[in-house]
Amino acid sequence: MSAVHPLLELTSDAWRVRLAPSLGGSVVDARWRGHDVLRPTTDEHLAAALVRKTACYPLVPFSNRVGFARFEFDGEAYTLHTNFPDEPHSIHGVGFQREWAVESHSDTALALRLSHTPDSSWPFAFEARQRFCIEGDTLVLTMSLTNLDARRAPAGLGWHPFFPLQTALGNTRLVTHWDAMLVSGPDRLPCESVAPPAPRPLDDTVIDNCFTGWSRAASIDSPHHRIAIDASEALRCAVLFRPEGQPFYAFEPVSHPNNALNGVEPAMHVLEAGATLDARMRLTLSPPTPESARTQS
C-alpha cells in the first residue's frame, strides 16, 4: 500500500507521527512516548484508502454538512455533489478527498499544498496549505485557505482528529468551555441551540453535536497522558462525536458550525479575492495528572 499512498514520518525523542499526503493530507498515526495520541489507522483501512478511518484529516473549505448540498451566496444559487453514501448533504469539504503535494519535509516538520479549481464539489478556486511540526512535547498543526477566485468566497477550516478511548484502563475526560450546543433534527442538520450538557466521562457519552462559542482551549485526561489543546482565533466552534459502543471519539476544532452556508450562526468567514484565512491547533502532551492517575488506579 505504501507504493500507492507513501507515508512520511516526523520523529523526535517524544513523538512519532506518520502522514499520508496523497490520502487526503491525512495523519495516519501519532504516538507520544510510546502511546497513541490519535486513533491509529489500521493496515486494512490504509490498504483500502479509507481516509475517514485515518487518525486525522483536514476539513477545507468547509466543515460538516452543507444541507442537501445546496446554498446561496451573493445572490447566486449553488448545488454541490454529495460525497457520503446515503447522505443527501455535502460533507467536510474537498481537502480530505484530494492528494496534497509535499512542499517540504524534515525530521520534525512537513508542509503540504492543495490547489483546487472550481468543480461540482466546490465552485470557488482556492489554495490550501497544511503544516505539521513537532516542538518538544507539542504537535502543531496549521492550515491556511487562500481565495484564488475572482469573486469573494465563503471559507471554512478545521481538523477531524480521532482519539482512542482506553476504558479498560480508566475513563477519559474532556474539560473545556462553550456557550451553546446545536441540536440536530432528523435530517442531521442543526435546528435548535441549547445549553451545553453537564460534562461526563467520554467513555459513557454518546454524542454528535456542534458547540458554538468555544473557548478555543481544552484539556483531555486519559489513562496514559493529558492533552492540552489550544486553537487560534479562527476556530470558533468544535464538534464532539462519540458513536455508541466505539472505542474512540472525535474532537474537531472548526471555524464555523454545521450548515453555516444555510444560515446557522456564526456565519462562515468570507474571503475577498486573494485573501487568506489561517488556523492553528496545538496538541501539548504531558503525563497524566495525579488526580487522573488516582482515578485510573
Number of strands: 25
Summing up helix and strand content along with how strands pair, one would put the structural category as mainly beta
Shape: globular
Enter the CATH topology name. Beta-galactosidase, Chain A, domain 5
Quickly count the helices.
2
How much of the residues is beta strand, in percent?
over 45%
Care to describe what's here?
The chain is mostly beta strands and 297 residues long. It has one domain (8-296): Beta-galactosidase, Chain A, domain 5 (Distorted Sandwich). Helix content is 4%, strand content 46%. It is built from two helices and 25 strands. The protein has helices at residues 43-47, 290-296; strands spanning 8-11, 15-20, 26-32, 35-36, 56-59, 65-66, 70-73, 76-79, 90-91, 101-105, 109-116, 126-135, 138-147, 153-155, 158-164, 173-176, 180-184, 190-194, 207-212, 217-221, 226-231, 237-242, 248-254, 269-271, 276-286. The longest helix is centred in the last third of the chain and has 7 residues, at 290-296. The N and C termini lie far apart (40 Å). Pfam families: Aldose_epim. This is Aldose 1-epimerase. One of its GO terms (molecular function) is isomerase activity.
